[in-house]
Amino acid sequence: MKIAFYGAAHEVTGSCTVLYANGKTIMIDCGLEQGPDIYENCELPILPSSIDCVLLTHAHIDHSGKLPFLTAGGFGGKIYATEATEKLCGIMLLDSAYIQEYEAKWKNRKAKRSGQESFTPLYTVKDAEKTLKQFVSCSYDKEYTLFDGITVSFTDAGHLLGSSSVSICINENGKEETIVFSGDLGNVKRPLIRDPRSPKKADYAVIESTYGDRTHPPVKDYVKQMAAIIQSTLDRGGNLVIPCFAVGRTQEMLYLIRTIKEQGLIKRHDGFPVYVDSPLAVEATEIYGSDLNDYFDEEALELLSRGINPIKFKDLILSVSAEESVAINKDKTPKIILSASGMYEAGRIRHHLKHNLWRRESTVLFVGYQADGTLGRLILDGACRIKLFGEDIQVNAKIERLDGVSGHADRNMLIDWLKGFEQAPKTVFVNHGQDSVCDSFADDITKTLGITSYAPYNGAEFDTETCEFSDVGNTTRIVKTVQKNTKRQSTAYPQLQNAINRLTAIAEGYRNGANKDIARLTSQINSLCEKWDK
Predict the structure, then answer these.
(1) Which residues contact 391 (CB under 8 A, 6 or more apart)?
(2) How many angstroms separate the CA atoms of 500 and 505, rounded?
(3) Cα-based distances in Å from 299 to 159, 231, 296, 309, 479
(4) Which residue range(s) make up the domain with 502?
(5) Residue 534 within any structural domain of the chain
């Protein structure tokens, strides 16, 4: 058996791992890379047509987003995933394909004017539609036969509706071994979905490390936090704008708001409207509200048993068309607006920020991770002024953050997941984390649990017979050589760019300031520049 690492190796996105066993080629996840690349990944050394099947841990695009590309390249096998993952992929892959086609048309218009070559989208809507026909719906904790001597089972990972850890049992040459892929493991005590569970046994485990170097703050009462923010915003006569990811986080926020309304925690603003302004989020909300009882936690199931939809309520308005979106800000009634994207980088949320950031009575609430260099991070770090659609916008709105909200397990939860195995793995591979975090968390596992752990680089293969690494196409190289020779970008440079953005925002805030204050800041900046000139 060989395990080959082709994605999310010393990076957080683009998950893709391949298992070679019993003469079969099995791919676990096939995700798009999102954000800046840290390493130049090698080309997949196998043809899509040679892949026998794909096992999908969950629907997020950084795990599923290249499946239509695989199908377009000749992959015709089955894609095994939970029922909820299949349904979410039904909207997310089509949405991704639409974006691919739309961006290709936009680039081709520019290319035609400039005489450049035409641009081909990564895949099309037709490719996505074909991909969706290849899904095989699976349930948690049941064993499915993939091929002779190879079975698979799915365990609740608690990260997203239908998310799972995948256990593959292989009987090869009279020897039985199990390898487990964690997928993205969820935080605990979150609305709607259950806490992550550990599979029973593993000889080998591949574990994510998104938060492998930190712990989350103690879980606070989300309902009380949220209610206080809503109350103060509505009392000021403003709008509460909540940028959040369309699938998962939006539905969690709706669960909290429904609870707040049910308990009557908001005074003097009966019937305040709540808008979900994202076509993808609207579709996802319908899926969360469908008959998927096997995926919800006990609180959600108790509501469903009473005929109560956990994420829908009176005065909830689902906005789909562009006209409906525009009308939201024309209505002066104080309201809550949930819109995508979660990091403020694209989508309708930017229009809502344009209409609300300058208003002192409004609030912008952060409920998710903000990557360095994003508009969301800039605002969270205290920018006084930002630019939207070519226009300078003063940041006057109150900026709030919902403490403790995270969709990923922290360092202690990841360790506990490994401890939860009845038969602990003898070897652990760490992926899906920032460059340095993968290494540090692998060391942490070894020191804490006494388990041999590695953080492989892109293109590395591990042979379970020899217990050795090799670089694909050159078996004399070990993983450390890959580390030295792989093209890397500085992991510190994005932080420098973010600092420059913050400084620019601060300078903009001085535009109408006192001359003496402007002169003092100018002198400080010039002194720093002169120091580096020397």
Answers:
(1) 354
(2) 9
(3) 17, 25, 8, 12, 46
(4) 493-526
(5) no
CA 326 from chain centre, in angstroms, equals 28
Q: What is the DSSP letter of 472?
A: T
What b/e readout covers 4-20, taking b as 16+ CB neighbours within 10 angstroms?
bbbbbbbbbbbbbbbbe
Helix residue ranges, H only, 202-360: 222-235, 249-262, 279-288, 298-305, 322-330, 349-356
Contacts (Cβ under 8 Å, ≥6 apart) of 310: 191, 192, 255, 258, 289, 296, 299, 300, 303, 304
Helix (H, G, I), strand (E, B) or coil at 385: strand
Whether residues 266 and 384 share a domain: the answer is: yes
Domain identity same for 40 and 58:
yes
The first and second tokens of residue 533, run together, are: 């000139």
Are 262 and 331 members of one domain?
yes
Residues 6+ apart with CB under 8 A from 395: 357, 358, 379, 383, 384, 385, 386
Sign of CA dihedral 464, 470, 473, 476: negative
pLDDT tens digits, one per residue of 347-404: 788 899 999 999 999 999 998 767 666 787 888 888 888 888 888 899 999 999 987 7
What is the C-alpha separation between 35 and 38, in angstroms, rounded? 10
Do residue 263 and residue 192 come from a single domain? no
pTM, full prediction: 0.83
**Cross-strand pairs, 138:** 82
Query: Rounded to a whole number, what is the distance in angstroms from the first to the last CA of the chain?
Result: 57
